[in-house]
Amino acid sequence: MSVELCLLFFTVALLYASAGFGGGSSYLALMTLWNVDFQLMKSTALVCNVVVVAGSVYHFYRAGQLPMKRAFQLSLISIPFAFFGSYLPLKQHTFFLLLGIALTIAAVLMCYKLFIEKQYTPNPDAQMTYKYGIIGGAIGLLSGMTGIGGGIYLSPVLRLGRFDTAKKIAGICALFILVNSIGGLLGQAAKGEIIFDLHFAGPLLLSVILGGQIGARLSAAVLKPRMVEGATALLILYAGVRMLIQG
């Protein structure tokens, strides 16, 4: 196991956990750059997601920043779709093509939020929750197919819709990622394609557990989230475009 990869996983978990994300998209991007087997990377990324966002869900809930009813309404449709998406048989070429497109779109959405959106004023509307639940289902399907939790797609959508405050959106996304990652793992288990190599994944899991616990306790002011999101967007964009070119 590469020490550099462990340090990168630790850093990703630390930064993402502070914003309610699991880091699945960046784990996949890093493992792609390390030429890891695509089935192994899917299972590893989802397990890393679960252990990171489980801590984030706990801390956001304790801080009163996780509206459970709205979070479950958003996640209800996504769970079976994440299972179904993960259960679908995908060839390696198709997987990397989908992942490349998904990461590129995610990077563009992150850049929009960073550089174009100037002012954010939440406008919570209970009636819109069910409509966003349908969008959550589509994100769950894509998440299951590409081996991530989907928070990186859901967060910009909720912010564009002024769904709630930034911190509550982060809490909602943490729960969304947790249940979708579990749904994705169950889908892989149902078709007998979970590949968990303890020699490979063990050090990475220890890295993200440590990084996630530290990140979940740090304030956004300490980590300067705009710089973090900018660096993350560049990494994801690079990995996504690289996959598309190689594909």
Describe the structure in your own words.
The chain has one domain. It is built from twelve helices and no strands. It has helices at residues 3-17, 24-33, 38-62, 68-75, 78-87, 92-115, 129-146, 151-160, 166-190, 198-217, 220-223, 225-246. The longest helix is centred in the first third of the chain and has 25 residues, at 38-62. It is globular.
Brief summary:
The protein is mostly helical. The chain has one domain (3-246).
**Which sequence of SSEs, written as H and E, runs from N to C?**
HHHHHHHHHHHH
**First-last Cα distance:** 26 Å
How would you classify the helix and strand content by structural class? mainly alpha
Low-confidence stretches: none
Bulk shape: globular
How confident is the prediction overall: mean pLDDT?
82
Q: How many individual β-strands?
A: 0
Tell me the strand percentage band: under 5%
The tally of helices reads 12
| Main sheet summary | none
> What radius of gyration results from the CA coordinates?
16 Å
Relative helix content: over 70%
Number of domains: 1
